[in-house]
Write a structure and sequence with these properties.
The chain has about 140 residues and is mainly alpha-helical. The chain is built from seven helices and three strands; from the N terminus they run ααβααββααα.
């Protein structure tokens, strides 16, 4: 039998849920300002960091590769993404942002005020601590 969560844990989980819901709501709104769906904006944001094969995009976004193909097709038709051969394996195609795609991804990220405003209420020390705690929770903290 799983032990019941203590009151503090329940409160923290509820607060995390609220933060996630608000983030997704604003992300969808910001994406729509650029005539993108939330999924298209997430793919474009990933690709702005580095070109990726479709399968890796699907893994990172926890969805089916066939969904990513459709999203990349739509981004490509708008001139935001292009397919390129992978230099390491020419059988693999990478999705890569065009210059316009990079500009759009940067503008999209800059328009996300939800995180910026509440985080500005925290000191640098508090933001650093929050970052470190989130990394520990996710198992991505540097060793």
């Amino acid at each position: 039998m799983t032990p019941r969560a203590d009151h503090l844990t329940v409160e923290v989980v509820d607060l995390i849920g609220t933060v996630v819901a608000r983030y997704h709501e604003e992300y969808e709104h910001a994406a729509s300002q650029h005539s993108l769906t939330g999924a298209q904006a997430r793919v474009l944001g990933l690709l702005a960091a580095q070109p990726l094969p479709m399968r890796q995009i699907a893994q990172r976004l926890k969805c089916e590769p066939s969904n990513i193909t459709g999203i990349v097709d739509r981004l490509e038709s708008r001139g935001l993404v292009e397919r390129q051969p992978d230099p390491a394996d020419r059988r693999v195609k990478l999705a890569a942002p065009t210059d316009e795609g990079r500009r759009t991804a940067k503008a999209l990220r800059g328009s996300l005020n939800f995180a910026r405003e509440p985080l500005s209420r925290l000191t640098v020390t508090e933001r650093t601590l929050l970052k470190e705690l989130l990394e520990r929770m996710l198992g991505t903290a540097p060793e």
